[in-house]
Fold this protein.
Amino acid sequence: MKIIIGLGSCGIAAGGLKVKEEFSRLISENPGAGAAMSETGCMGMCYKEVMVEVVDEAGNSTIYGEVNEEKARKIFESHVLGGKPVAEYTVRSSTEPNEQDSFFEKQRRIVLARCGHIDPESIDEALAMDAYKGLEKALKTMTPEQVIDEVLKSGLKGRGGAGFPTGQKWKFARAPQSDKKYIICNADEGDPGAFMDRSVLEGDPHSVLEGLLIGGYAIGADEGYIYCRAEYPIAIKRLNIAIKQARERGFLGENIMGTGFNFNVKIKEGAGAFVCGEETALIASIEGQRGMPRMRPPFPANKGLFGKPSNINNVETLANIGWIIRNGAEAFAAYGTAKSKGTKVFALAGKIARGGLVEVPIGIPLREIIFDIGGGTSSGKAFKAVQMGGPSGGCIPASLIDTVVDYEELNATGAIMGSGGMIVMDEDNCMVDIARYFLNFTQSESCGKCTYCRIGTKRMLEILTRITEGKGTEEDIPKLLELAEQIKKNSLCGLGQTAPNPVLTTLRYFRDEYEAHIRDRKCPAKQCKSLIKYAIDPDKCVGCTLCAKNCPVKCISGSVKKPHEIDQTLCTKCGTCKAVCKFGAISVD
Amino acid sequence: MCTKCCCDSGAYYKAFEDIMSECYHGNESDLIPILQKLQSSYGYLPKDIITRLSQRTGIFETQIMGVATFYSQFRLKPSGERTIKICFGTACHVNGSEKIADALCDELKIEMGGTTEDNKFTLESVACLGCCSLAPVMMIGDETYGRLTPDKARKIIRELYAKGDQK
């Protein structure tokens, strides 16, 4: 029996290490059981963390969800010792179908093929599932030009957000003659609400290394950098292990696989600056400077890191490369739409019933991702919008739920494919508040170089804050639109050029909500504190005193068994009373 | 000279020397890794250490300060014994992270970014901790607490205080 514990960041955050300890205790106490334990990365079903897979001698797999120490003991006793799977904790079984299977049915896994199946700290497990076979094929049977050609033919576009064809980018970086070139993996996944790259790095670091090596070979670089967020300590740890193992096995270093190709990799930890996801800012950061973008041209392909030709690709882009070389461009291009090929990984989060990491063929309708895979909203309330592309993206309303996921189709809605964050919102979310949230983010992350981005976003944020406080005026919407246009036009980098998108899309699809805030001084979603009032319905209140006891500012008064009252002058609108009331007596208006 | 503790300044600067010999290879690109190591060793970036770093590397102090203030990871003031990081990622935001922050500010009687009077806790916001399926989330030390409610967050702090008292 093999016990495999999902220990990605999500799994650890949900208490995975305690579960692991419990299993290792149980195994050592029962040496006769013949059970072995190993770890794996993200299995994708983050909503069921902590996840544990038990594989029996016949190879049958049972995946358990929401495992804690107590459940671990029961699973061990019944399944590992008794051979009887515990049906009530099972989320997926290789022998018996259940309703959770629909989470996987529409997925196609290229990037995540090994994630959740291998121990990310074991190169042997990765090799058993074809890791570095693409590299071997490229180095031994293809010229760099042929590799670039294959990637061009596959139609792979950069998965970091901009969607520039990867093969084209490599071609540009291949062209200049230079004694030194660099290839850089952008693992500075800064979009709040996105965790695709982290999961890939944590679950299958070798796939990223393989892509980086093939890219290095294609453009003629012998040195690679992986620029990773410092907030991802587990990803960095596993990358370091993967690099060490790859070096020991001769996939990194001098004369790789006897082909004369040399390549080395360094990891650079980011220090917390969203703008460093931009290519030239990232380069400045590796060089030890403030991470501020610069004018292009010269493009990094001609003059990049330390002044040398450099190429930068996102984690997910690189994780596709080994598969493409191994299986051929046609196999990859078989997935997707006419203009956008392959698959895309999305981090499904927010108010979604089955949040997690999903990989789907490009061209799938949003509806299928959110409802068939994601199971609809977690609250059971009406689905309102999905935010895609983080601070650079936009909100797609429920009415456009049949939009297919493809670069062009999504751009037409005003949102973008982005790096893959997908935040689902229900009717309780205020769209003005969401716009304000993102503007607050971009405003504080603006590096300050361009005036429009630095000051324009600040003015936009002030207007949005004013609106959510019920102090908006009729001129505010035209002002927002004007500022948005100027910021888009007059900013140097993607951060500024896209910063107004969350405001523009919410204005496009939810203008009535802005107007309700401005004209009626009402927040239709009942989220904006300044515009709502908590009140106790005297007919429903039984005087249980629970609200008064829990109120942090003690603004609820009343005697036992008599209806209570809220002192509006003291109320901070924290919502605690509504949350604790068992009689539904507290209303928000 | 060390004014921070009762140690002699030799021990105080030893960490600096160790980090320099490990991370400094004479390049400007070593600056950020050095600052990261210094911060994890000293808990923040003390002024005298920055001066010393400037003298050693020849990088102007203003430039070091420019880098240290640009990146949100770096701290120029010491923090409390433990840092509470409240996640303000999108998933946490739509699931009510602001209410968690309000509750903790109220519970600890500090503002975001502040440190409690007894120096036990510093309250910080982070852009995203990446465990969106557990939203709203906060991190105290290395421990992550998920699926929070304002009430649950308060209780966690009270429990930590109670545990501290027992010691």
